[in-house]
Design goal:
eight-stranded parallel beta barrel, two-stranded antiparallel ribbon
């Protein structure tokens, strides 16, 4: 507590300098609380407005898939290069060192695996544990148009409601069942449903035709899922086209950790997302960095 005596009278009021109100210009975030904006500004770079998220939460439905057998050996070396980490609480607690100080998009829905019918999910992580883990964002799968549409939307709404209470944003992750087509009509509907229910960020797939309509009709940032492993140049082309058509980032997993050189690949992806590098230039960067020791 300051002493009651010996203080110098205040005099520097800056009468000629109006107070500047700096805004965080993320799409849709203008009316959020300070804590929500602070967390989102850790996910989406304030300068570029974009993000490169590294997804390695696949094990919650797939088990030890290729590239994720030993996360301490394959994923931990990538962490410093990602803007945000998307993972489960089990991997976060057991493998991810807390010294990286990276924002965490925590997988908070859980349910059926690849051994049964996918998408029957529930809330797997309650808000108290998300807070305990210092989650920056909470990810919930939504199966729009599928058998479990209603229950997964209910899961999303519950997470949004509790997240809003504590200033933690929710990522709505659109799932696509075997019977659904990944076209602009479907992806636009699924993304808008997530946003209409209050998701602060939406993760969906890229489509070759009409993707700009998907992003334009969604009032919050869209990040694209990397999906299945593609040749490195094709993955960079997909990222470039998505960003060019309004996506505000990528949430890639297999297209990074299953690449021939994952560190070189994540650096190349970042050049596309943050620096608007053309796919051929980014691929040249990847080729130049490939095989180097970082």
């Amino acid at each position: 507590m300051a002493d009651a005596t010996g203080n110098v009278d205040a005099k520097d009021y800056g009468f000629d300098t109006p107070q500047k109100n700096s805004a965080y210009e993320l799409k849709g975030a203008g009316h959020y609380d300070w804590g929500m904006k602070d967390r989102l500004s850790r996910v989406f770079d304030p300068k570029s407005g974009k993000t490169v998220m590294l997804a390695f939460d696949h094990g919650y439905i797939m088990g030890p898939t290729s590239g994720l057998e030993r996360i301490d050996l394959t994923i931990v070396p990538l962490l410093e290069h990602a803007d945000c980490l998307m993972c489960t609480r089990g991997i976060l607690r057991t493998v991810v060192p807390p010294t990286f100080n990276k924002p965490i998009s925590l997988r908070c829905s859980a349910g059926t695996t690849i051994l049964t019918e996918l998408n029957e999910e529930c809330i797997g992580v309650e808000i108290e544990d998300a807070i305990r883990l210092n989650a920056t964002m909470m990810a919930v799968m939504v199966s729009v148009g599928g058998k479990y549409e209603a229950v997964t939307i209910k899961n999303l709404c519950k997470m949004i409601e509790t997240g809003n209470r504590y200033g933690i944003p929710t990522l709505g992750v659109t799932a696509v069942g075997k019977e659904l087509v990944r076209d602009a009509r479907y992806l636009g509907l699924a993304s808008r449903v997530c946003a209409e229910n209050g998701a602060q960020v939406v993760k969906t797939y890229f489509c070759e035709e009409g993707f700009e309509k998907v992003t334009a009709a969604c009032p919050v940032p869209i990040v694209i899922a990397g999906g299945k492993k593609l040749p490195e140049l094709d993955a960079l082309k997909m990222a470039y086209k998505a960003i060019d058509q309004g996506a505000m980032g990528v949430d890639m997993g297999r297209n990074i950790f299953q690449a021939d050189d994952p560190i070189a690949m994540i650096k190349a992806v970042k050049s596309v997302v943050h620096d608007n590098a053309k796919p051929d230039d980014a691929f040249q960067m990847y080729s130049d960095l490939k095989g180097r020791t970082f």
